Amino acid sequence: MRTQVGIIGAGPAGLLLAHLLRLRGIESVVLETRSREEIEATIRAGVLEQGTVDLLNESGVGERMRREGQRHEGVILRFGGQSHRLHLAELTGGRSIMVYAQHEVIRDLVKARLDAGGQLLFGVKDVSLLDLDTKLPKLRFHDSDGAVREITCDYIAGCDGFHGVSRPSIPSRVRKEFERVYPFGWFGILVEGPPATEELIYAYHERGFALVSTRSPQIQRLYLQCNPNNRVEDWPDARIWEELHTRLAGSDGWRLADGRIFQKGVVAMRSFVVEPMQYGRLFLAGDAAHIVPPTGAKGLNLAVADVRVLARALAAFYGTGQTALLERYSEDALRRVWRAEHFSWWMTSMLHRFHDESPFHHRLQLSQLQYVTGSRSAATMLAENYVGLPFDKD
Ligand code: APR
Ligand code: PHB
Q: Do 197 and 346 reside in the same domain of the chain?
């Protein structure tokens, strides 16, 4: 088989890259280890930045998101028993976020891909990357029938997430990795029932962080800071509700309503970046190259920003033969990556309790929260990062 761009992974990064390339007349093949049912059902993030929303709309895959997604113009920080609203739209000249689950984005992109007759192979195994430092890199794999297949490509995009094969295919001598693992995780639940609040609530409490998010008018998404080694069995429903009520309690009369919990899971918290994000004819995008803790809601949005830069660079090559943008891909993508790394680390540090934390540290966190909710400049700093800084100009 022969293609222009071989794409490993059908997450948001791989699927959106295939879609943006097709719009520019560039052919690709997407390889995915899991089944369509599995990728369309996995519960992940849910907050889209303004730039992500605009890109999905402009590229013709935003129709269902516009109908079913929920636009939020504000976000709430809760501490000391009080809620403090940041008016995102007012602070950022009209920008906002869209609450629309990642697996819904996946469903829209898979449909667009298949409707366009694009190649998307599910259930592949043992993908390996060959000849990356030549002009004709290859992907070898077992297809879903177990047959060995090989695709010769002009370029390969490694969009296979944090545990994929692409990043380790870059020789370790040219790879520099930066990492921070946090001493806590998030316990996430899905609950049946109406929203308890119109906007997301990020709560800081001496027992730990809690987040009230939503998925739809019927399904709510809640998280609470937990021990990273906790298992689902450690958190019976009663313990979850007690902890959420304690962490979200206040003197303002607002109260979270209980509902039937139908899904539970533990999310690890990590910051990670690999530099450079390219080697020979391989380009990494999304979680394959970087991880952020979920506090800033940046993971999915960074994957989108990477493939926007990569699609533009590939389009320049196929349009004019120029490789300048491809050569600069890593440098261009990493500027936004590090901004999001800093923002996610900062939000995480401000909103969580650390085991070794002293009363001094706790007071500093409260002071920071008061500043962010009390000063227009500080609030603007949070807001413009949260809704997403504008993309670099084309
Ligand atoms: N071969 C083929 N596919 C693979 C391989 C492999 N060896 N390893 C992993 N995959 C697939 C996974 O099954 C998954 O569907 O690659 C896809 C990677 O998707 P994501 O992990 O969603 O990564 P990405 O597209 O970069 O999106 C980042 O996902 O984890 C969330 O919070 C994160 O929202 C962010 C987004
Ligand atoms: C979610 O709804 O899953 C969600 C929302 C905001 C975050 C992280 C996750 O910061």
A: no
